[in-house]
Amino acid sequence: MTPRTFTLLLSATLLISCGQSKPVVISQSRDLTAPERKPILGATAQDRFQFAMPAPAAQEPSPAANSGPRLAWDTPPGWKETPHPMRDVSLSFGDGGECSVVRAGGSLVDNVNRWRKQMGLEAISEQDAASLPTRILFGGPGVLVELDGSYQAMGTPSATPGYRMIGVILPVPSANSAIFVKMVGPRALVEGNEAAFEAFCDSLRIVNS
After folding, report:
1. What is the pLDDT confidence band of residue 37, given thresholds at 50, 70 and 90?
2. How far apart are CA 44 and CA 16, in angstroms?
3. Pick from 55, 58, 80, 85: nearest CA to 67
4. Which of 110, 125, 146, 182 is deepest in the core (most CB within 10 A)?
5. Exposed/middle/buried for 185, CB within 10 Å: 0-12, 13-18, 19+?
């Protein structure tokens, strides 16, 4: 059979298939194997991190969003909630200050160096990252990171000098992940809001709906 003959036969088969009007019913089923069950497509934040994402303020929360543990916090005076699809909490303050809570994977040193890169600073070693000071977050010891430099946010073409970043990283071994609380903005603005940041971190808690 020549390639041309094969192409014509394939085209004819497709045309006949497209013309069928009788639906095909698949009645067979089987249990998923362990490798197939491993990736949880569409897993909720509660499935992956043991607490649920807050429901968007503009939408009516579903019963699922109100069931089980969820994240709660107190917004500092003068700060505003600015919902962001990639953040559990997103707040803004002053002219250019922002604070966020996110959850992601990666090692401690990789995440510390990711922040350092955003501030235009050189990477540090794993040993140096392990020796950073700690701060209590959700009742556990989080790693405290304080950086000064030229900040370049994701997606921006250039860095802005004179910025300060304060962040806390709390590993969550059971979820193979970590919780990140970060405040960043012009240095004077961040320094003036350090007390508010401390109060915000202290207010973070898991509540049962």
Report:
1. very low
2. 42
3. 55
4. 182
5. buried
